[in-house]
Specification:
The protein is an alpha+beta fold. The chain folds into two domains: 119 residues, Aminotransferase class 4, branched-chain amino acid transferase, N-terminal domain (D-amino Acid Aminotransferase, Chain A, domain 1), CATH 3.30.470; 161 residues, D-amino Acid Aminotransferase, subunit A, domain 2 (D-amino Acid Aminotransferase, Chain A, domain 2, Alpha-Beta Barrel). It has eight helices and 15 strands. A hairpin with a 2-residue loop joins strand 10 and strand 11. Helix 6 packs across helix 8. The longest helix is centred in the first third of the chain and has 19 residues. The structure holds N-(5'-phosphopyridoxyl)-D-alanine.
């Protein structure tokens, strides 16, 4: 077994070292994957787009009929406390806050029991940013059929489909697996995917087949700030393969250029297989947003 960190985490009202935190074997998160999560980035020990992540947590909880167990101020207070503790202990200023809420502990029964006390868990880890080489050269991805369930809009901890999809790319030394449902782009195993076509950024429309990443709205704002057209519309597989540029986005990847898909270089002319100008402008705008919007 891996050595677990001593870093403090929050579990059901207490702050304990991660390696000592324990939940019941009858937790419905353990038995059914019955719970939701969030991953919030912190830069310079300050939280980035925290309110947006909390709003999505509320949406995920509501879809599963789990009452939010904590008030908004308490979530913020706890996240700040854990980020400050890790910053103090290790000096790590850029971190990821992981939040998980499960329905709670009950005898095994598929029916959702009413009035359970949800299990609340929060931990922080140093962020592992994309390397300078990945930003300079772009990353390789593979594609696969989207074989996950049809409620990808819920940020559920039931991630076996995503785990299996991600492993396919890991097996090919690639960074992500880009998923297509009925011939149209949905997302990647743990990121959203963006197509650049004729200078415009295109993304799949919000639906039950795509997680609405917090970067959906952020990228829309950044495009508006720097004067790049932004449009959500169904994207056929052929438009992905022939894109001028392809991008990934997530809390951990920010925006990251994809320069090869299934072994074929992305882009055209001199920029074939290289990160493009739209990526460069969005990445720069993203860095400005981090510096000005973290709380
Ligand atoms: N993943 N789609 C999926 C399936 C994801 O798991 C994620 C995030 C995203 C991007 O969402 P956001 O911009 O809010 O990070 C899209 C997180 C980082 C994870 O599971 O670790």
């Amino acid at each position: 077994m891996q050595t677990l960190p001593e870093t403090l985490c929050y579990l059901n009202g207490e702050l304990v070292p991660v390696r000592d935190a324990k939940v019941s074997v009858l937790d419905r998160g353990f038995i059914f994957g019955d719970g939701v999560y969030e991953v919030v980035p912190a830069y310079g020990a300050k939280l980035f787009r925290f309110d947006e992540h909390m709003a999505r947590l509320n949406r995920s909880l509501a879809k599963l009929r789990i009452a939010n167990p904590l008030a908004a101020e308490r979530w913020l207070e706890l996240a700040r406390e854990l980020v400050a503790a890790l910053h103090g202990a290790t000096g790590a200023a850029d971190q990821l806050v992981y939040i998980q809420v499960t329905r709670g502990v009950a005898l095994r029964d598929h029916v959702m029991p009413a009035d359970l006390e949800p299990t609340v868990f929060m931990m922080v880890n140093p962020m592992k940013p994309a390397s300078a080489e990945q930003r300079h050269q772009g990353v390789a991805c593979i594609s696969a059929r989207d074989f996950r369930w049809e409620r990808a809009d819920i940020k559920s901890i039931s991630l076996l489909g995503n785990v299996m999809a991600r492993q396919m790319s890991a097996d090919h030394n690639a960074v992500e697996t880009i998923l297509f449902r009925n011939g149209f782009l949905t997302e990647a195993s743990s990121s959203n995917v963006w197509v650049v076509q004729e200078g415009a950024v295109l993304g799949p429309p919000k639906s039950e087949h795509v997680l609405e990443g917090i970067r959906y709205e952020l990228i829309r704002e950044l495009c508006e700030d720097v004067g790049i057209a932004f449009n959500l519309r169904p994207i056929p597989e052929a438009d992905v393969a022939s894109a001028d540029e392809l991008l990934l986005s997530s809390a951990t990847k920010e925006v990251l250029p994809i320069t090869s898909l299934d072994g074929t270089p992305i882009g055209h002319g001199a920029l074939r297989g290289k990160p493009g100008p739209v990526y460069a402008r969005l990445y720069e705008a993203y860095q400005r947003a981090k510096a000005t919007q973290s709380i």
